[in-house]
Amino acid sequence: MSLLRSSLFTGVIRQHVEHAHLGHHLSRRAGTPAEASGFGMATAGPEPPGPLGSLGSTSQAMKKTIGHRGIDPTGETTYKKTTSSALKGAIQLGITHTVGSLSHKPERDVLMQDFEVMESIFFPREGSNLTPGHHYSDFRFKTYAPIAFRYFREMFGIRPDDYLVCSLCSEPLIELSNSGASGSLFYVSSDDEFIIKTVQHKEAEFLQKLLPGYFMNLNQNKRTLLPKFYGLYCIQAGGKNIRLVVMNNLLPCAVRMHLKYDLKGSTYKRRASAKERDKAFPTYKDLDFRQDLTDGLLLEADNHSALCKTIQRDCLLLQSFKIMDYSLLVGVHNMQQACQEQASRVAEAGATDQRRPPGQKPLYNTAMEAIQGEAGGMPSLDTEDQ
Amino acid sequence: MSLLRSSLFTGVIRQHVEHAHLGHHLSRRAGTPAEASGFGMATAGPEPPGPLGSLGSTSQAMKKTIGHRGIDPTGETTYKKTTSSALKGAIQLGITHTVGSLSHKPERDVLMQDFEVMESIFFPREGSNLTPGHHYSDFRFKTYAPIAFRYFREMFGIRPDDYLVCSLCSEPLIELSNSGASGSLFYVSSDDEFIIKTVQHKEAEFLQKLLPGYFMNLNQNKRTLLPKFYGLYCIQAGGKNIRLVVMNNLLPCAVRMHLKYDLKGSTYKRRASAKERDKAFPTYKDLDFRQDLTDGLLLEADNHSALCKTIQRDCLLLQSFKIMDYSLLVGVHNMQQACQEQASRVAEAGATDQRRPPGQKPLYNTAMEAIQGEAGGMPSLDTEDQ
C-alpha cells in the first residue's frame, strides 16, 4: 500500500493532466493460484472494443483457445462448448426475465439470508408460461442473490427499466476480442457501460461469500473505487454451468483515456511488455508510470486527500477479504490532447462515433466524480479507441 | 403481524392522546424454550426506579432468588455469587476502559470480521499498567465486537465522552428492584437513558450472531423501533462469566407515560394480571388495550403510515432472525393529564425531580421522533414514577 501511494502521489505536479480516472482492478486471491488468473474482475484489462463494424477478421486472429474458451469450426468463440451467440442470447433472455420478475416483487430490506439465495428458471426452446421461445438449446438461468443485487443496483443509481434492460438486453452485446489470458469471455453492452465476464465456479462462490462485506462497504465507504457488481448469474446448458458477473465498465469510451496504468504498488517486473506497448492504447504498469510521469499526477488537495482515504479504506476491505493481488487502474484524459483531437476530427468531416452520439454523457458517475463526492459535469468528447 | 396491526390501528380516534411512545420489546426466540425467558431485551418491562433516595427497604422486599440472581446474607442482590455492588463497580471500570481505549484507535470501517471479535482486559485488584486499582476481587472484562458497537453508538448519535462515559460510568448505576421473572439483573444509568441487563451465555452468543443483520437493518431501516444495542460485555470473576448488554431505555422518565401497553398481537391470555394492575403504573396487555382504547390511538396519517411501514420492516427482520415472541411496547403520554399534574405540582411547592432538572430534554431521540423521521421538540415535564 505504501508503495502504491508513493508511486502515485509523490510530488504531484502536472498541469496538463486534467482528468484522471481511477478504479481498483481486482485480479487475484492470495494463496489460491488455482483461482488466480480467473478472478480478473477488471473491466478495463481487455482492450475496449472498436465500433461494432470492426469486429471482423482482425479480431478472429486474436482469439485463442484458453481454458474453457474455444473456437468452433465456423470461427465462433465458444465457452464450455456453448457458442458465444447462444450465450449472449441466453444472457439477454435470462436477465430480462430476472429483472422483470423482480420488479413485481415489493421493495423490502435486504436480509442476511438474501445473500445466499439462488433463483432458477428454465427456458425451454419452445417457450413456457413464464418464458418466451428462442432459437438456442434449452437452458436454465440462475440468479444469485437477486434481492441483494437489486439493492446494489439501486445504490449505484441503476433503474431496472431504463438502464439494465435497455443497456444489456435490447441492443446486441459485443464480445471483446482481446479477452486476456484468463480464459474468460468478456462482453460489453452496446452503450459501453456494462461488462459481462464469465467466472469460474470458485470465483462465483467467493464473490457470493463476499456480498455481506461488500454491502457493508457500500454503506460506509460511499466513495469506494471497487468494481460495481450489478449481478451474478449462472447459465446451465448442455450439462455445463456458465457463471457470469455483470459489472461497471471502469473506462467507458465516452471519455478517451490517453494514458492507462495498471498499478500494483510493486516495481518487480512491473513494466508493460513489448507486445502491450505496440498496441494503439497500451495499459502501462508501475515502472512505466514512474518513468513517464516523474512528477506524478496533479490532483487538487481535496481530491488527493479523499482519494488517499478511499484507497486506504478499499485496501482494508480487500485485505479483510484476503485479496492481496489487486491493482489500481489509472486512466488519464489529457484535455489539451483531446482538444487537438477534436479539432482534427472536425476537420475530417463525416467521422462519427458509432457507439455514442456526440454530446451524450456517460450514464453513471465516473470514478473521479465518486472521489469528488459529487456528479460534476464532464466534457463530452468523441472517442475512438480503434 | 396482522393481529398486531389490527389491534393497534383500527379506527384511531382519540383526541387527548398526544404522545405515543413505541418500541419493540423482544422477549423470546422461537422454538428455544431454554432461552425463552432470558431474551428479554425490553427496557421498560421492569418498573422504572424511583428517585435514588427511595431505593431502600421497600425494594428489598421485592427481591427474589431466581436463576442466577440471589440475595446474600446482608440483603444485597447477587448474580452468580458476585454482589451487585462489585458488579456495578466492574461494569463501570470495564466500560470506562474499553470506551477509552477505543477512542485511541483510529476510525475505520466495520468489517464482517469485527462482529466476531472479543477483546479482553484483566483488572487485578491492585491495578496494573493499563488498569486502575479497585476494591473488588480481580476480574477480567471482555468486550464483544468493540468496533461494531462503536459504529452502532455513532449511528445512534452517542458520543463516547459526553454520553457513554458520563451516563454510565461517572454516576452510580441504579439497580432495578423489580427485575421480573427472568432471573436477570437490570441496572439503569443515573440519567435514566441506559439500561444494563445481564444475559445468559446463549443470549449473548445469539445477539453476536445477529449483529451483521442488525447492522444491515440500521443502514436500511433508519426508523427502526428495535432496541438500540450499545454494547455487549462479559465480566469474568470468581470463575464465573457474567454477560451484559447495554441498551437504550425505551421509556426514560423524562416523559411520563400515563398508560403502557405490551402488545403481542395475540388475544390469548393477554390481560395484565391482578398483581400488575395493582401497581401504580402497570403495563397492560392486548386485551386491556382493546377494552380501554376501543377507538385505538390517534396518529397523524403520515405517522400512522410510517409506523406501519416501520413495524412491517422490523417484523421482517425479527422473522429472519427466527424470533417470533416479541412485543410492541406502547407508552401513552396524555397531554391533558400532564398539564393537570404539572399544575398540581406547582401548587405543592418544593417538589422537584431528583433525577433530571426541570426543562432538560432527554438526550436521545424518542421512538416517536424516530417514526416521524426528525427530532421534534418535546415538552419537558417533571416525572414521578414512584
UniProtKB/TrEMBL annotation, chains A, B:
PROSITE patterns documented for this protein: PIPK
Subcellular location, record wording: Cytoplasm
GO biological process: phosphatidylinositol phosphate biosynthetic process
Signal peptide start-end: none
Gene (UniProt): Pip5k1a_1
Gene3D superfamilies, sorted: 2-Layer Sandwich (3.30.810.10), Phosphatidylinositol Phosphate Kinase II Beta (3.30.800.10)
InterPro entries, A to Z: PInositol-4-P-4/5-kinase_C_sf (IPR027483), PInositol-4-P-4/5-kinase_core (IPR002498), PInositol-4-P-5-kinase_N (IPR027484), PInositol-4/5-P-5/4-kinase (IPR023610)
Transmembrane parts of this sequence: none
Record bears the keyword Metal-binding: no
Gene Ontology CC terms, in alphabetical order: cytoplasm; plasma membrane
Species the sequence originates in: Merluccius polli (Benguela hake)
Protein name, as recorded: Phosphatidylinositol 4-phosphate 5-kinase type-1 alpha
Taxonomic placement: Eukaryota, Metazoa, Chordata, Craniata, Vertebrata
Start and end residues of each PIPK domain: 83-386
